[in-house]
Structures are given as C-alpha cells and as structure tokens.
C-alpha cells in the first residue's frame, strides 16, 4: 500500500465528475519527507517554489507535446530548471518518452514508463452491433466535419453516423458497443484513450493515432490515415462499411488485438508501473527540506484560494449526490 494524497491547484477543490477515495490535503499539510508528483503543465511554476525549499518532486508527462507549456511569467529556463531537478520523469507512452529524450537527452535515465488502465467491465463487446459509425468531434473538428459531410453521401444504405459529444462514460460505452466503425481524429496526443475504448468495444478504428497511439495502432483493429488525407479517410471508412455490410457480424479477427489491449491497459499493469516508480524513489537521495513554517509564519504557497463560483458549483454537485431521507 502506498500512502498518497491529492493536492489540487485550488484549495478545497474536489473533482465532481469522478468518484474516488483519495485523501485530499492542502499545501499547509506538506511534510519535509513528502514527494510530490507534478503535472507537466505546472512543473515550471511549482519547481521554482519546491527546489529552494529542498522538497523532492517528480514530473508526470501525460503529453510529450506539452513539455514547453507553463504558467504565465515562467520562461524556457524555468521549464529546463524543473526537469533538471526532478527525481524522476513519469511518461505515459513510448512517444512521450522519445519526446522527453529529444528535449533532455541527459535525463533519459530518469524516465519511468507508466501505464493507465481502461475498465474492461465498461468497455467491452456485448453483441448489440448495428451499422453505425461513431466519432468524437472535439479534436480536429474541421477534418471531422469534412469527412462526415462526404460519408453521408457515400456510405451503404442503412448506415448511420453519430457524434459522441457531451456524454458521460456510461453513455459513451453504450454507443461504442453498438457501432462497428470508430473514426479517430486525434491531435497531438500523449496517449489517446478513445481509440482504445472503441477497439475494446469491437470497433474497427480508422484514422489518426495522434503520436502517442502509435504503439498500439496495429491491424486489423486499427487502420492508420495520414493526418490531413481526408480523401483516404473517406474511402477507407466507405470500404470498411461495404465489407461489413456483406459479411457475417463476426469479431473473431479482432479478438487477438482486443486481448493485447486488455493486457496492456489492465489495472495490474498500471499498478506494476507505479510500484516501479515507488521503488525508484527509494534509491533517491533523501530530502534536504527543513520542517515547514509553523502556524503564524509564512507558509509554502502551492495553491490558490477557490473562487466563489467554483465553491457554489461544488455545493450544488454535493447536494445532488447526497442520498435522500
């Protein structure tokens, strides 16, 4: 068991869209022996505070294309300073690891590959397929609109196209279980999960891997389209739809790929990677931090006060969750 807690950017904030049992603390609760894991987009800002204090931290890079992202007032030097002083750099994908090494070749030995899990009790095949193409319009929306416009004229009779937008996880999974083709318009992604979820629901996934998805983008479950090649995109989806219209609804050829995805995105794989990270920290030199200032002194400032709007919104969410008498 790993003793851990969450510090949010805004003091007192809780995620209203996800249930969790994680312990929430504030920056006032930090101990000299604590080890912080920072998101890459906050690393430059927070490292300027943590390094002078002697507090140890690692950086979790969920998107290698965001390495230079930082808060207003931070510079490229601040970004470099954050990575140079990190105990470890957690990477979500092979593509992200390569990008970290590209920017910081001298820090390659600090990279720890981690994995995320996809709940296969939610994303799976239940045998309710119909002639449906699904996609998410949020990424590369202009590409998606152009492809959909063309496909409406070219898909075989009886086929439908549905956008997955503004839905919760249960609704997304239900639609993916019905569809037979999922179109991926991923942008620059650290590791895009919607294509994985679609494939686990028995879809043929056609489109962009976004960089991070390259490691799992294997035929027949996935078909790659070069970014911007909209004609090829339309013709490949059209061809797949015609094949599926003239064949028995048999997912046998997809099962080996689905099995690989279930193994790669399993909770066990995720926990094994986190344990490797914790074991790595045991080899790290001890913190040089001194006890944090007592009450009445100037505390370490990692968090902002929650805005009134957020506070009121959370009260409404919690009220809706409260069981009735």
TrEMBL record:
Q: According to the lineage, what is the superkingdom?
A: Bacteria
* Name of the protein: Glycosyl transferase family 1 domain-containing protein
Organism of origin is: Paraburkholderia monticola
